[in-house]
Amino acid sequence: MTATYEVLAIRYGTRPSTRAEMFLNHHVYGEPDGPLDLDFYFWVARNDRHTVVIDTGYRTKGAAPRKQRVELAEPLAALAALGVRPEKVPQVVATHAHYDHIGNLPAFPAAEVVIGRAEFDFWTGPYARRGLFAFPTEPGDVAHLVALRDEGRATFADGPLTIAPGIEVIPVGGHTPGQLVVVVSTESGRAVLTSDAAHFYEEIERDRPFVWLTDLAGTYRAYEVLRELGEAPGSVIVAGHDPDVVRRFPLLDGVAGLDGLVARIA
């Protein structure tokens, strides 16, 4: 039998924004602007035998200030409240190298870190420090990825890769060159964790690319992959930054300091 996991989405921050700011060239749709919050999440897949942390959130101290963020929980403290000790976690998936997804990787000293090969190669390559590419990254975070490679703790996904029984990563690109989607087997089917392959459900449902991307055609292709994954019986899509995640899925109660912030996907 395939291993199954409990999957949690932890909402640790939010930022008030607008539709015109969030969707690329919003004006071409001929629709009025309006408010649209950007939530920040990371994810945990766990069972009695194995725990995988999918992304690690941004660092609340020591990172470059980002505008208008409202911090709802400190990521490492949230993990501790959920009974997850970062120093004991055996695997972390770094879906891509933006600041809000790999900021706390140094807190996982024993973990194998899974990242897309194209992602690593791009952010350690000649274009990574050009202004528009560099803005959503932190140099120290990228340097840590290089250190992980040198330590032999980085695993590179060149294509779909099963990283543990019941957990597969799929490079889709688009938002970043090696953006990963994570598919986790659950008791009820599969949880498709889009990360930033789709920040909002509307990206998939209405073909509306997010404002930050490295490949527009690749972004559209990623939406096609997500639609196909979501059509499989028992599959649920979990968008990467959508406030609707904590409305579409039941909240996990009884965790001190995390009331209303943890959605139980399965």
From TrEMBL:
Claim: Zinc is one of the keywords in the record? yes
Q: Does the keyword Cell inner membrane apply?
A: no
* Start and end residues of each Metallo-beta-lactamase domain: 39-241
Signal peptide boundaries? none
Q: Which GO terms describe its molecular function?
A: hydrolase activity; metal ion binding
The UniProt keywords, alphabetically, are: Hydrolase, Metal-binding, Zinc
InterPro entries recorded: MBL_superfamily_lactonases, Metallo-B-lactamas, RibonucZ/Hydroxyglut_hydro
Q: Which residues cross the membrane?
A: none
> Which cofactor(s) are needed, names only?
Zn(2+)
- Pfam families from the entry? Lactamase_B
PANTHER family assigned to the protein according to its UniProt record, in alphabetical order: METALLO-HYDROLASE RV2300C-RELATED, QUORUM-QUENCHING LACTONASE YTNP-RELATED-RELATED
- Entry similarity comment: Belongs to the metallo-beta-lactamase superfamily.
Q: Can you say what this protein is called?
A: MBL fold metallo-hydrolase
From what organism does this protein derive?
A: Acrocarpospora phusangensis
